[in-house]
Amino acid sequence: MTVSPTDFLAQATSRLSTLATDAEAGALDEAIALMVGAIDAGGVVQAFGTGHSEAFAMEIAGRAGGLIPTNKIALRDIALWGGRSADELIGSGLERQAGVVDELFDVSLTGPDDVFIIASNSGVNGSIVGVALKAKELGHPVIAVTSLQHTAAVEPKHPSGKRLSEIADVVIDNLAPYGDATLEIADGVSAGAISSITAAFIAQLLTIGVAQRLSESGGVPPMYISANIPGGDEHNHALEDLYRDRIRRGA
């Protein structure tokens, strides 16, 4: 079967249009309210994702045009800040381990007023479900970004038997199909994975919504500007200092 760039564009734009329309109708309002509530209380937005879903966390935390009171949690933190060897980061083994969660929280900069936003296309791997369960156990609201079609079609891998979507206070469907790929190239062979594109769009819709809500309440949204424009570093560092020891920024 022959597919074209326009075919993939159609797959992307139809989903992005649906997400935007749903957001206009209030589909993201509950998630935005949880994020605003955390920031108003002096907390931060804790973003977590593994594999390609780490890209979602990078869209939420620490980028130009993004919110400053945000923090990205990553599995590599247990090697950077904990006792694990860097060799253990090779492959997808840690992603599937439920037992890594306590170590991850031990080295993470979390506070009582934080909200967690967790992205996983499948929503079933051990570390993803484990972080969601631990966050809920500690009293944090949890927002999930996942493929409802995919997660419903696969078995949970966490000992609890739960999916991310079954734990979160708010669930946002990234609209990716089962298997993520959108275009059939040949029998049994597909390409055009979409979840990273829709997840990035969701991250930006949430960021815009939170900034808008903070502005409407009379505050100045604490936003990053590009470090690559004059005064960018000075602006960003001054605001980051307000959250010293609450957020990490690294390579």
User: What is the CA–CA distance across the termini?
Assistant: 41 Å
Count the DSSP helices: 9
Radius of gyration over alpha carbons? 18 Å
Which structural category do the helix and sheet elements fall into?
alpha/beta
Identify the overall geometry.
Answer: globular
The total number of structural domains is 1
CATH architecture: 3-Layer(aba) Sandwich
CATH top level class name: Alpha Beta
**Main sheet: strand order:** 2-1-3-4-5
In brief, what are we looking at here?
The longest helix is centred in the last third of the chain and has 22 residues.
Structure characteristics:
single chain; 251 residues; alpha/beta; Rossmann fold; five-stranded parallel beta sheet; two-stranded antiparallel sheet; 7 strands; globular
Structural commentary:
There is one protein chain. By secondary structure, the protein is an alpha/beta fold. It has helices spanning 5-24, 29-40, 54-60, 77-80, 101-106, 126-137, 148-153, 195-216, 232-240; strands at residues 45-49, 70-73, 115-119, 142-146, 170-173, 181-186, 189-193. It has one domain: Rossmann fold (3-Layer(aba) Sandwich), CATH 3.40.50. The chain is built from nine helices and seven strands. The strands form two sheets. The chain has a five-stranded parallel beta sheet, with helices on both faces. α1 runs parallel beside α8 (195-216) and α3 (54-60) runs parallel beside α8. 41% of the residues are buried. The mean pLDDT is 93.
